[in-house]
Amino acid sequence: MRFSYFTHQRLNVGPLVNSTAYVNKHSLSENRANFHQWLVGFTDGDGSFSVVKQNNKWSLIFKIGQSTYNLRVLQFIKKQLGAGNIYVEKNKKMADFRIRDLNTINTILIPIFEEYPLLTTKFYNYEKFKNAYVILSNSTLSKIEKDKLLNELSLSIVPSDYISPAWKIVNNTVSNYETASRIMTKGWLIGFTEAEGSFYLVNKTCTRIVHGFEITQKLDKIVLMSIKYLLHINTNVSTKKAGYFSIATTNSRAIENIINYYHNTMKGMKSAEFKIWNRSYKKHKGDYLALEKIRNNVRIMKNYPHVVLNKKKE
After folding, report:
1. Confidence at 243, pLDDT banded by 50, 70, 90
2. Cα–Cα distance between 260 and 302 in angstroms, integer?
3. CATH of domain 177-311
4. 89-131 pLDDT, tens per residue?
5. Residue 118 per-residue DSSP state
6. What pTM does this model have?
7. What is the Cβ-side half-sphere exposure of residue 58, based on CA atoms within 13 angstroms?
8. In the list 79, 125, 267, 277, which could disulfide-bond 199, CB 3.0-4.6 Å?
């Protein structure tokens, strides 16, 4: 049995209608599109698509995991989708948002990832997930036939040189802002940054602390190349141990570009971290003692999220 996927892209054409009803409807549609792009980016960072067999029964699981420190981002996702459940581990350190219901997967989840394709290797796992849904929902197949097909599907492994089909539009090559922006939307990048990005303060010398930004990703170098161009970061994508890639900068001009790009955009605790980082750049750049204190406060906030920081002293 062969399966295929279709990626749908919307084209905004035609004149705007000057009416309050149209503007409200257009705004709702735009907000929904922004959320969907954000969700795909966040999923590319911290989401997973699983096809599992338990007690001789197959099931599909879409999951996004987060530290309970960032529980509010899972609550935001659940509210926006109007579906799914949140599970908090017994130790209360980790939480998951999950969707398992096949009807919800078909009517809510798959349409989002068809319109806005995943940009990382997770596209491969999504394809398996979607094809598994096709098998499970096919009433003409017997249980034996479904088991055979799902076993074959579950054994498939992502090739080492795999690149998401989304990049075919630019021939799997990104060399400037224009090619990057053809594939990667701002909504996607905000979501991916909330999952994988880091706004931090780092010692340059024993008497100097500077602002830094970094995103690390395994396998998908093309994703970091695009981020480099979209955020106007001059440094090159570097290779880390175990096949990880990183784009990082402490350059003042790049940091200011990043501040402008992410202003009032994020939904979870990364938003709080960004605001502290942003404010400390504008108010305390070059002030070692002030920045050291802020860095320590942020560490406390991450380790003990219920501790209220004294914002007036930041």
Report:
1. confident
2. 24
3. 3.10.28.10
4. 988 889 999 999 999 999 999 999 999 999 999 999 999 999 9
5. -
6. 0.87
7. 22
8. 277
In the numeric block, the tokens 């089909």 are attached to 165
Quote the crossing angle between the two packed helices 269-284 and 71-81, to the nearest 10°.
Answer: 120
Q: Which of 85, 45, 48, 83 is nearest to 63 (CA)?
A: 48
User: Which tokens is 191 given?
Assistant: 């979501």
Are the folds of 26-168 and 177-311 the same?
yes
Residue ranges of alpha helices (H) inside the chain are 20-46, 71-81, 102-104, 110-115, 122-136, 143-155, 177-183, 186-196, 221-230, 252-262, 269-284, 288-303
Closest to 272 measured CA to CA, from 75, 72, 112:
72
Closest CA to 100 of 83, 117, 122: 83
Please state the domain extents for the chain: 26-168, 177-311
The mean pLDDT value for 259-286 works out to 96
Residue pointed to by tokens 């955020």: 231
Strands of the sheet containing 94-99, edge to edge, are 47-54, 57-67, 94-99, 85-88
Using the structure block, give the residue that is written with the tokens 């999951």.
63
Angle at 156 between CA 151 and CA 159, to 5 degrees: 175
| Residue 31 CB neighbour total at 10 angstroms | 11
Please state, in angstroms and rounded to a whole number, the distance separating the CA atoms of residues 289 and 251: 20
**Mean pLDDT for the stretch of residues 32-60:** 96
